[in-house]
Amino acid sequence: MDAQRALLDELMGAARNLTDEERRGFKEIKWDDREVCAFYMVRFCPHDLFVNTKSDLGACSRIHDPKLKESFENSPRHDSYVPKFEAELVQFCEKLVNDLDRKVRRGQERLAQELEPPPPPSLSGEKAEQLAVLEEKIKNLLEQVEALGEEGKVDEAEALMRKVEGLNTEKAMLIQRPNDKVLAMVQEKKMALCDVCGSFLVSNDAVERTQSHVTGKQHVGYGMVRDFLAEQKAAKDKGREEERLVRGKEADDKRKPRERESESRRSGSRERERHRDHRDRDRDVDRHRDRGRDHRKPYDRRSRSGRDGRDRSRSRSPRGRSGHRRVSRSPVRQN
Prior knowledge:
Order of helices and strands: HHHHHHHHEEHH
Low-confidence stretches: 317-335
Structural class: mainly alpha
Strand order of the largest sheet: 1-2
Mean pLDDT: 76
Oligomer: single chain
Shape: flat
Helix content: 55-70%
Distance between the termini: 173 Å
Number of helices: 10
């Protein structure tokens, strides 16, 4: 029912059931009006995240209306407007986080300077003389302790060692710096900065206070902003990778026909070359065969002519040659 009402409100207007008199003072507001907060429509408005904190951005100057947000979510134009609204929110959140990161860097530099131990102050002339006297006494006593130990006089050596310990304590007090106690207290409660929200923390603070900070409004708000930016960056990187793969696939699809055509041309060229080689070899064989026939022709003509001449001479020679007696046709004389 609510979805249908929102759809009717978008198509016919929220004042569709008002009278003419009521319409005069009525200004209908739609989710795509400039007065409506696009950040609230698409995700969250950063102004709502840090109320009553050090990072409070103040009240948003645009309209936050759950009914308008519902109308936007049910609108047929929802998907086409989401990228535009998200891009505007990304731009706002990036500026917010960049400003915070600069504050965090400045705070870390200040903490590093405060924790750096100052150079030791120089001792006065009087304290330097006292220190020299103490060191000489300690040296002499240690030599005596070593000698007593070699002689086996343990009790005397232990008594002298107690004097040496007292002199060392006196020496430590003499050279102690005035700000050593303050530095020890600072190191005991070492400060740090939260990388997420920029709040100052005590590094070795109690677990309850640390948990209270993590669940606090400022930390949660900046965590939400950073997660949103990371999500958008991952989606953009994924889109670029998919676009790169699509371009690569299109390039492969265009290249494969060219490769097949080139391979076909190369194959045809190789086939024509093979055919030409076969034809040349056949031509060479025919040429050698004809040359061999030409070399044999003179001998064939001479042998053939010899045989033909002999045959003609035989046909013209008298039969007597063949061994038959030739009969004379002259008349016989009778006596």
